[in-house]
Amino acid sequence: MEKFVNSDFKLGIITGGQLGKMLIQEASKWDLTSYVLDTAEDCPAGKLASKVFIGDYKDYDAVYNFGKQVDILTFEIEHVNIQAVKQLKAEGHKIIPDPDILELIQDKGLQKEFYQNHNLPTSPFQLYESKEKIIEAIDSGKITQAFVQKSRKGGYDGRGVAVISDLNNHEEILNGPSLVEEKVDIDKEIAVIVARNQQGQVKCYPVVEMTFDPKANLVDKLICPAQISQEQTNQAIVLATKIAELLDMQGLLAVEIFVDKKGQLQINEVAPRPHNSGHHTIESVVTSQFEQHLRAVLNLPLGSTELKLPSVMINIVGNPGYTGPVKYQGLEECLAIDGVKIHLYGKKITKPYRKMGHSTILAKSLEQALTNSEKVKNLIKVIS
Ligand code: ADP
Questions:
Q1: Which secondary structure element, helix H or strand E, spans residue 358, and what is its range?
Q2: DSSP designation for 299
Q3: How far apart are CA 362 and CA 280, in angstroms?
């Protein structure tokens, strides 16, 4: 480890959002120098990074030139210019996760084929080149049931996902290459973050349950541990570990899974990086996902993922009706409640439902954490 613990070691992070910021907070404990590539100097990670390089993660030159400046390149977003990272790898630069993994995960169609090829449970699907081909399949009776359509590339936070319930209404069908999958009768949405280092050591985080706010299309609450059976918990951990091993993953892999109404698990998608479903680990788990990512990236021993206390995480999002320089209300009242932790990302401008921060609410029992999380949710206002 000695070789890493000196300020000359440069960790490169693409991009500088809140996940990058929280990663740098951990990296600074080991005195690592952190460089960030982002389009904005005042991005959430901007104040903490040793240096912000201005550039777009989708731009070849920006990513390539950034990668040349750092000792290890890692990501808070997977949709990075793939040619640039492949070229960097070919030139001997250390990229984590591997560009081949990024390429697979960037394309939801390839991801689904990966699950299918390895007999991993996921809802049945078909790939389509265009909206027109989907309409043809509906007209010819090949598609007969309500379905979920996902753009193969570029989707994020529910963008690029369309639930098509009425087959006669073609307006909502997305353009471009996509996959069409069976709509799962979802009982719960859960996630497991698994960490793996180069030596193949694996650690899984406690399974979390995510509830969604349909208006914001964002996670409403993240509940840890998930309220599912022990058998389902074990199955989720086995699945996540298997995927990380099949991918020969180094770093973190967040695995999102549906539990259907019959109690069966179906893989939704994975993300090869620190993930929103692990925000709570900063306070509620012995080793946070960010420290774990660093350990995995640097091929150090992985830390304990034991849960210290049950927790609920809620996003702090812009209240609808306000766009402009941000003001927070109710923080003081929230902090007066035992076990409430507040993270503000430092975004200057609020917009309806924009993720501006999060709160993790810890308590001795999950019931208490849930009750307190409702109080926090009602107290915090993000306005302009
Ligand atoms: P994103 O990558 O944008 O987060 P997801 O693939 O996670 O997109 O889909 C967003 C949400 O859409 C999921 O959290 C889930 O609520 C719903 N969803 C996705 N796929 C299905 C499906 N096959 N059946 C039912 N609901 C789905």
A1: strand 355-362
A2: T
A3: 9
Ligand 1, residues 268, 273, 355: which to mutate, most atoms within 8 A of Cβ?
268
From residue 203, give the alpha-carbon distance in Å to each of 1, 209, 228, 251, 313.
20, 18, 20, 11, 21
Question: Helix, strand, or coil here: 132?
Answer: helix
Take residue 274 and report the two structure tokens written for it: 């620190």
Ranges of H-type helices in 52-183: 60-68, 82-90, 99-106, 108-117, 131-139
Identify the helix (H) or strand (E) that includes residue 30. Answer: none
Per DSSP, the three-state class of 103 is helix
Q: Is the pTM of this model over 0.90?
A: yes
How far from 174 is each of 10, 170, 171, 194, CA to CA, in Å? 41, 9, 8, 32
Query: What is the mean predicted confidence (pLDDT) over 228-253?
Result: 98
Q: What is the DSSP letter of 237?
A: H
Cα of 176 to ligand 1 centre, how many Å? 18
Ligand 1 neighbour 181 (Cβ under 6 A): yes
Q: Which tens digits make up the pLDDT trace of 205-228?
A: 999 999 988 777 788 899 999 999
What are the tokens at 368?
Answer: 């208490």
Pairing outcome for strands 186-196 and 251-260:
antiparallel
Question: In angstroms, what is the span from residue 158 Cα to ligand 1's centroid?
Answer: 7
**pLDDT (tens digit per residue) in 366-378:** 999 999 999 999 9
Q: CA 365 to CA 360: how far, in whole Å?
A: 14
